[in-house]
Design a protein that fits this description.
The structure holds two protein chains of two kinds. Chain A is of the alpha+beta class. Chain A is built from five helices and seven strands; from the N terminus they run ααβββββααββα. Chain A starts with a helix and ends in a 28-residue tail after the last helix. Chain B has two domains: 30 residues; 135 residues, Rossmann fold. In chain B, strand 2, helix 2 and strand 3 form a beta-alpha-beta unit. In chain B, helix 2 runs parallel beside helix 4. The radius of gyration of chain B is 22 Å and the shape is flat. Classes of the chains: A alpha+beta, B alpha/beta.
């Protein structure tokens, strides 16, 4: 083998060993970095945009155009819209068209629906006894205007504690309320002074 | 034989007169209907009474639905609808809550006799110029079955019936 070829081979093998070591160091560095970020992620609060990911399961009691009364579905605030989805159908309302959003509270029988009705005919008045057991619910009432300026109202019920979250998101996206929370007082409509919110 | 048939026809005539009398009287007593082809429903007011928002919205939505179904109007406009300005023979319905007692569905289901929810609403039908055409106090109740919001449905049904009896698209003002 010529001298210059042997020299070149030695240089190439040295380079390979050095690059292997470098790759190993870089790999360890990546692992340490990832671990560090993982530890830090626990202290990082998600932004409001990230919070709006999961929709809330609700019952639309009345008022949404094109949706039957007492329809089950999910409610989410995304992209400046209040979106009610049931099955394949979706109804979007611009948050800016919402003139008033108010939360309240309600309750329903623990055993409701058809089974709940059937328990009313249970022997020894046990249906009445079962009526004593109820679950608390949140209500969300909104008033909004359509394209012609017509005023609509819609009422939703949802699990306890969810209505206030949706209300805050709606206000953040441009909706108004007559019963402002302390943080959202600047978004209040002129009727705020004589309106009081229903609290559990 | 002839006498019997005469008596029979006299009895029949008397019977017809007795039966027809109240019907004719009732027809005479019926007030003239007010001409109205369309109605605009204003948002429910509750300045004096503290009414939960869901009841206010439920009263308004049920009223619109029942007027659509049973009111006999060609158009039912919502509060603020721009098309209402061009409507002929428009009547505006202003409703003010005068009384509200929120009952309890639990108490109704347990006791059957207690826990009723009732709403009393003053309804004023005016024309476009604000002239009062008709006013009534209408109550909505839920006594036995259903949630509290069912009282608003009861009120809406009664209001639609009042509107149907007093207002008509074919009446001669």
């Amino acid at each position: 083998m010529p001298k210059f070829a042997r020299h070149a081979q030695e240089l190439w093998s040295d380079g390979r060993e050095e690059s292997k070591e470098g790759e190993m160091v870089a790999g360890v560095g990546r692992v340490v970095c990832a671990g560090f970020l993982l530890v830090l992620s626990g202290f990082l609060a998600p932004s409001p945009a990230q919070q709006s990911a999961a929709p809330t399961k609700v019952i639309q009691i009345m008022g949404l155009t094109g949706v039957k009364n007492k329809t089950k579905g999910s409610l989410a605030v995304e992209g400046g819209n209040l979106r009610f989805a049931h099955g394949q159908a979706k109804v979007d309302l611009a948050a800016t068209s919402v003139q008033d959003v108010v939360t309240g509270n309600d309750s329903e029988r623990l055993i409701h629906g058809t089974l709940g009705t059937l328990t009313m005919f249970a022997p020894y008045e046990s249906g009445r006894f079962l009526s004593l057991f109820r679950t608390k619910l949140d209500t969300l009432t909104i008033q909004y205007r359509d394209a012609d300026g017509g005023l609509h109202g819609a009422v939703f019920t949802m699990p306890l504690g969810q209505a206030e979250v949706i209300k805050k998101k709606l206000i953040a996206q441009g909706a108004h309320t007559s019963a402002p929370t302390p943080e959202g007082a600047d978004n209040a409509s002129p009727r705020a002074s004589n309106a009081k919110e229903q609290k559990p | 034989m002839k006498r019997i048939s005469e008596r029979g026809s006299a009895c029949a005539l008397l019977g017809v007169m007795l039966l027809a009398g109240p019907v004719l009287q009732a027809q005479e007593k019926q007030p003239a209907k007010i001409k109205a082809t369309s109605i605009k429903v204003a948002m429910i007011e509750s300045d004096e009474i503290k009414l939960p928002a869901e009841f206010q919205v439920s009263l308004y939505e049920d009223l619109i639905e029942q007027l659509h179904k049973k009111g006999g109007f060609q158009h039912v406009y919502r509060d603020g609808d721009r098309h209402a300005a061009d409507a002929a023979d428009l009547v505006i319905l202003n409703s003010t809550v005068r009384g509200f007692k929120e009952g309890s569905e639990r108490v109704r289901q347990v006791t059957t006799v207690a826990g009723a929810t009732s709403i009393s609403v003053h309804c004023a039908f005016t024309n476009k110029d604000g002239k009062l055409l008709l006013e009534r106090d209408i109550k909505g109740n839920v006594r036995f079955f259903g949630g509290n919001l069912r009282a608003t449905y009861d009120f809406a049904k009664k209001t639609a019936q009042v509107a149907r009896e007093s207002l008509s698209p074919s009446a001669g003002t």
